[in-house]
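quick q for whoever's on today - can somebody do inverse folding on this one?? i tried earlier but teh output was garbage lol. tokens:
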């Protein structure tokens, strides 16, 4: 048997469990996001909306009428993407654009009563699917995971 020289290059990046690469956490979070997004899309599909629409409804419920520029920033969308999403929501009767007093160029997006109904129905539809998503976790672990992810997403120093 020959002596194997010590490894001089870092291990290849993978998303396999146990990978010690500096990219491992990001890759694992990406895979978890894909799985969670698929579960949430399953809950939203019967309601006729997608996760991108629901993300805007979340902002509108939280903040009230919001200009498109701020919707784009809050959802991580670009200007064209947020326009398409708001167009979809308007066509579905879930949101409306309204003029902003004092600035004729800017329009705020507001959730409609039908949008609030869909928002509430989405939570009811997602409940059993969300439980399935964390079924592999033990008692208290879903809450701990939520706490850890919240601290990761919203660091105390405010950096994003």
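ok took a stab at it. sequence:
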């Amino acid at each position: 048997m020959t002596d194997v020289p010590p490894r001089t290059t870092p291990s290849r990046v993978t998303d396999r469990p146990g990978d010690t690469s500096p990219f491992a956490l990001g890759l694992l979070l990406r895979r978890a996001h894909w799985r969670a997004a698929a579960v949430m899309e399953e809950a939203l599909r019967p309601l006729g909306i997608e996760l991108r629409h629901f993300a805007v409804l979340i902002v509108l419920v939280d903040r009230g009428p919001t200009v498109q520029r701020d919707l784009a920033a809050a959802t991580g969308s670009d200007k064209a993407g947020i326009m398409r999403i708001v167009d979809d929501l308007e066509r579905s009767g879930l949101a409306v654009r309204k003029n902003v007093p004092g600035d004729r160029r800017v329009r705020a997006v507001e959730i409609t009563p039908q949008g609030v109904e869909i928002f509430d129905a989405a939570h009811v539809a997602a409940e059993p699917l969300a439980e399935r998503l964390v079924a592999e976790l033990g008692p208290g672990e879903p809450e701990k995971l939520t706490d850890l992810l919240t601290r990761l997403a919203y660091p105390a120093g405010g950096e994003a």
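fwiw The longest strand covers residues 103-111. also The CA atoms of residues 6 and 12 lie 15 Å apart. so keep that in mind when u check it
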